[in-house]
Design brief:
Layout: H1 3-23, E1 34-37, H2 46-56, E2 60-67, E3 71-72, H3 76-85, E4 89-95, H4 109-117
Parallel strand pairs: 1-2, 2-4
Antiparallel strand pairs: 2-3
Helix pairs in contact: 2-3
C-alpha cells in the first residue's frame, strides 16, 4: 500500500467511526422538574406552561412575587393563574436584596402579605 492509499484508508475508517458515533447519539433536553419564572420572562400563557409540562416534564413552577422592599412583579398574578390553569404545582418567592439585620425580621411578613394579595393559598407547616 502506498502512502496515498494508506492515508485515504485511514481517513475513510475515521469518517465511518465518526458517523457511527454521531449517528447513534440522541440529544435530549435536560430533565427539568421545576422552573423559575419572573418579570424577566415577561408574560407567559397557559399554552406555554402546558407545553413545558408535556414536552419537558416540568411538574412545578416557582414564581417571583416581589423583590426588595417595594417592587411587586407585574407578571406574578398572570403567571400564577396560568400555571394553575396548566395543572402544575406552584410556588412563590420574595427576592430579598438588602443585607438582613435582625431588627428587620418583622418586615419580612410583607412578602407573605404580597403572596396573599396575589391570591395564593398559604400552607402552614
Amino acid at each position: 500500500m502506498n502512502k496515498h492509499k494508506l492515508r485515504a484508508f485511514i481517513l475513510m475508517v475515521g469518517a465511518i467511526f465518526m458517523a457511527f458515533l454521531l449517528g447513534n447519539t440522541t440529544s435530549h433536553a435536560a430533565r427539568m422538574d421545576m422552573v423559575d419564572v419572573s418579570n424577566n420572562n415577561g408574560y407567559m400563557s397557559t399554552a406555554e406552561y402546558v407545553s413545558m409540562r408535556n414536552e419537558f416534564g416540568v411538574k412545578a413552577v416557582t414564581v417571583k412575587i416581589s423583590e426588595g422592599s417595594t417592587y411587586k412583579d407585574p407578571y406574578a398574578a398572570s403567571n400564577i393563574a396560568n400555571v394553575q390553569a396548566a395543572g402544575m404545582y406552584i410556588n412563590g418567592y420574595h427576592l430579598h436584596t438588602t443585607p438582613l439585620k435582625l431588627k428587620r425580621l418583622p418586615k419580612l411578613t410583607s412578602p407573605v402579605k404580597r403572596l396573599k394579595w396575589q391570591g395564593c393559598q398559604l400552607a402552614r407547616y
